[in-house]
Structures are given as C-alpha cells and as structure tokens.
Specification:
Layout lengths: L1 H11 L2 H19 L5 H8 L8 H25 L9 H12 L3 H34 L4 H18 L4 H15 L2 E2 L6 E2 L13 H18 L20 H4 L3 H16 L5 H15 L11 H25 L5 H11 L8 H5 L1 H24 L1 H8 L3 H20 L2 H19 L4 H24 L11 H29 L1
Antiparallel strand pairs: 1-2
Helix pairs in contact: 1-16, 2-3, 2-4, 2-16, 3-4, 3-9, 3-14, 4-5, 4-6, 4-13, 4-14, 4-16, 5-6, 5-13, 6-11, 6-13, 6-16, 7-8, 7-20, 7-21, 8-20, 9-18, 9-19, 11-12, 11-13, 12-13, 18-19
Length: 496
C-alpha cells in the first residue's frame, strides 16, 4: 500500500507527469489506430526521448503510449475491418458487422468501454499481486532466476510461431545478438568482429527500432499503391447503450480474467488471450450463432481481454524482470536507459518508481477512455493519412532518436542493418517475439546459469535441491514438449 501511495505522490506532484501521460495516450492511440503502426513501435520510437526525463516521467509516458496503442487498434478494426494492431483482429469479427448495420458509434463505445474495464481490472491485479510476488521473488537465487528466464523463453518459442523450427531459429538469433560484447564474467570479447563499438553490446534501442520501425517501413512500403477505403464518421456516444450491453457482462468477465491471467505468463501476449477469450465467450453465450455477425459480446470479450493483458504483462516485468509480452520487452529499454534493472530489487531501491508504474497504468486507462471517445472523429481522419507521408517522418524520428542516444552514427547503421534483417525474417515467416525475447532473456539465462554453476562447483545436481527452480524448468519443458507431442499425434492420426 505504501508503494502505491508513493506512486500517487510522485505522479501527481509533478505536473510534467500528467502532461506526459496525456501526450503518451494521444500518441499511442494514433499509433494503434493507423494500420501497420503498433504499440510496440510507438513505445520503441519514444524511448530515446525519455533519456533527459526522470525515470518516473519517462516510464509514465511510455506506459501511456502502451495503453493508448493497444486500445487504439479497435478504431480501424471497427470502422474499416482492418485491425490497427494484431491483437484487434477479433474485434473485426463483430465490430465491423455492427458498423455495416449502421451502428459504428455503438460499436466504438462498447469497445472503448470494455477496454477501460479490462485495463482497470488488470491495474487492480497489478497493485494487489505484484507486491506479494516481488516479496516471494526476493528469496530467489541464481538457480530460480535461471529457471524463470528459461521458462519465459520457452513460452515464446512454443506460442509465438506457427512453426516450432522457425520459433527456435528466431530465439537462437536473439540469443546470438544478446551475446555480443564483453563477457560480464570472464571479460572476453565475443562476436564483435573487430568493431570496438560493439564491446558494450548491441544497443537495445537501435535493435528494436530496426526490427520494428525500419522493418515495418520496408514491409508496408510494398503496399503504398494499394487503395485504402476512406470512412466518414459523424458522432459517437460516451456511454454504451444498455440494450447492447445487457448480455455482455459474462463476456467482459471472461475477457478480464483470461486477459490478466495470460498477461502474467511471460511471452504469450494479447493474440493468445483475445483468441481464448473470444472462443470461450462464444461457447458460453446463449446466442453463439450471432458471433461474427455484429454481436456486442464478441467485441466485449476481445477488447476487455486485449487491455487486461496489458496490466498482467507488467506484473512479471516489475517483479521478475521478465517482459510479459513484446511491448513490455520494449519497456525494458525505457528502464535500462536510466540504468535501472527491472525485478524485485526495484521495490527496495526505487519504490516510488514501481508505484509510479502502477498509478500511471491505471490513470492511462481512464485517460484513454475519455480521449478515445472525445477525439474519435479526429482519430478517424488520421486513419486516412497516406503512408507515403507518414513513413519518411517515422524514419527521420528513428535516425534522430538513435543518433542522439550515444551521439554516434554506428548505432544508426546498426538500426538499418537490423531493419533489413527484420524484413528478411518476416519473409522467412519468423516471428519477432522469439528474437526480442532471446535478446533480452539470453544474457540473463547465461548469467544466472554460470553464477549458479560457479557457486555449486559446476554441479547441476544442486538445482534438484531447489524445488521452485525445478518447477519452472518442468514448466519450460512442457511448453516445448506439449506442442511437439500434439504435432506428432496429429501426424500419426493423418497417416492412419
């Protein structure tokens, strides 16, 4: 409770935090509402601008961008059947049919309202669960941290790629990138290829801007000539009509519980939570046949789960130092830029920052609700902005942000190289999630494994005496083995 009170004190005593929160939500909604521009991209682009801010100010702004970006995807999903973010795809199934029925205002009001509920529920979960989980994690040793990081990586490999092989390739690529630089234990230079600039490792900001911003520009540039439908929008309602909401509370509850729960599991993210929530809501609905034809329950399940995952994903970030999804992995860059390491020590060393994260996340959801409905007409106009005007501005911001971080062109070239590599990975069908999580978790896995082995004189048997570590290793193994068994059984059934 004291941590939360500190958070309120630090956030509301600084007028700049309030301004940055408003700005962040506004920018996030723009990035979420324009197809091809995601919340991850928005957070990544604004990380360099937080360098001169205090940690609380910087994290407040990045979290606001995160919240606005995830929710903003419902605008295009509802109005033109194009998900602004990948996780909004299930909103298309019922949001757009409602629009075609002449109810765009009602569909948007329902989606934004459910986003608010999902975000607030996960915010309360963050405030209630995170402190307790952090206290438990303080008793963790090297073996436990090794096992938790390994579990996070295995979840991503198992869930974020249709092909297990491609997921493994992506994770191995990320592990290799994370190994660049001077070994923190032995002091040996690794994978620098004679470039002294790589002695300190690959810049996380340059890497993420390359893999997300530059890669997305390459990818979307191929579709600049394709016509996009223009939309007209006249009015909306601040409160969803009760006639549309009277059957939706069960779907909202399902979305909030599943979204928060899946968000806590490292590496799974919104795509899985919205899929499970939507299908479960359809299963328990009294009118499952209406799903996909403009059913408000479908919008409620999708959007409440979508935003509930945000708060859930922040729990392993602040408690264990492990990103819950792709966007929170970018948030780590916002912490690292200020010399902070997310994890249980944050509670002891920077309780005001942890409290600020919790308060900022809750307030960002409230601001998101008011802003999305109040400025809906303006955001709709932004949907129609030509990408040929937008992309040069994005590239300019990327170059400026990366260069000013360390005042060297080498980081800009690194960003461009990873932009090409990211586009190549997309062409090969390899997800970015395993790459990023491999880059972030790989060094942690190596560090804690070597520390544990040094402490135990090279004996792996020591881990067997740590039940928590054994539990996480078993879970990690299951996340990899179970999908393989399913594929094997499906193959055997097909052969028979």
């Amino acid at each position: 409770m004291s941590t939360i009170l500190l958070g309120f004190q630090y956030v509301f005593s600084d007028p700049m935090c309030i301004f940055l929160m408003l700005l962040g939500v506004f920018v996030g909604i723009i990035f979420g509402s324009i197809p091809g521009l995601t919340a991850t991209l928005g957070v990544t682009l604004f990380i360099p601008f937080t360098y001169t801010m205090s940690p609380v100010q910087g994290l407040t702004m990045l979290i606001a961008v995160y919240v606005g970006g995830i929710s903003g995807g419902l605008i295009t999903a509802t109005l033109i059947n194009i998900p602004g973010t990948p996780s909004s795809i299930y909103t298309c199934f019922d949001g757009y049919p409602m629009t075609k029925k002449g109810k765009p205002a009602e569909a948007l009001a329902i989606g934004v309202f459910c986003s608010l509920i999902g975000g607030c529920v996960s915010a309360f979960a963050l405030m209630a669960i995170a402190p307790q989980l952090a206290k438990v994690s303080l008793s963790f040793g090297s073996w436990e941290y090794f096992a938790v990081a390994l579990m996070g990586l295995s979840v991503v490999v198992a869930m974020c790629s249709k092909s297990m092989i491609k997921g493994l390739i992506g994770a191995l690529f990320g592990l290799a990138i994370g190994g660049v630089g001077i070994d923190s234990i032995s002091g040996v230079s690794r994978l620098t290829f004679g470039f002294w600039q790589l002695q300190g490792g690959i810049s996380s900001t340059a890497l993420m801007m390359g893999l997300f911003a530059i890669t997305e520009v390459f990818n979307q540039s191929l579709e600049l000539d394709k016509p996009r439908p223009k939309i007209e929008f006249k009015k909306t309602t601040l409160i969803p009509p009760l006639r549309e909401m009277k059957t939706c509370w069960k779907a909202i509850g399902i979305g909030c519980v599943i979204g928060t729960g899946i968000g806590i599991l490292p590496g799974i993210g919104q795509n899985a939570s919205t899929l499970i929530s939507y299908n479960l809501a359809r299963t328990v609905s009294k009118t499952p046949e209406e799903f996909g034809h403009g059913c408000p329950e479908g919008i409620c399940a999708s959007e409440s789960s979508n935003n509930a995952t945000n708060g859930g994903a922040l729990i392993p970030l602040v408690c264990l130092g492990i990103p819950g999804d792709l966007t929170t992995s970018a948030l780590i860059g916002g912490l690292m830029i200020h010399g902070l390491q997310p994890g249980p020590l944050l509670y002891n060393e920077h309780p005001e920052l942890v409290g600020g994260i919790m308060v900022a996340y809750f307030m960002a959801n409230v601001i998101m609700y008011v802003m999305e409905l109040g400025l809906m007409k303006a955001f709709v106009r932004m949907v129609n902005v030509k990408l040929s005007f937008l992309f040069p501005a994005i590239v300019s911001c990327c170059v400026l942000g990366v260069y000013t971080l360390n005042n060297r062109m080498f980081d800009v070239w690194v960003m461009i190289v990873f932009g090409f590599l990211g586009y190549l990975l997309i062409c090969l069908g390899i997800d970015m999630a395993p790459v990023i999580l491999g880059f972030i978790l790989g060094p942690l896995i190596e560090k804690y494994m070597r520390m544990a082995l040094i402490a135990s004189n090279g004996s792996w048997g020591e881990m067997a005496t740590r039940p928590v570590a054994v539990f996480f290793v078993i879970v990690a193994a299951l996340f990899v083995i179970v999908p393989l068994l399913r594929k094997f059984m499906a193959f055997a059934k097909k052969q028979n």
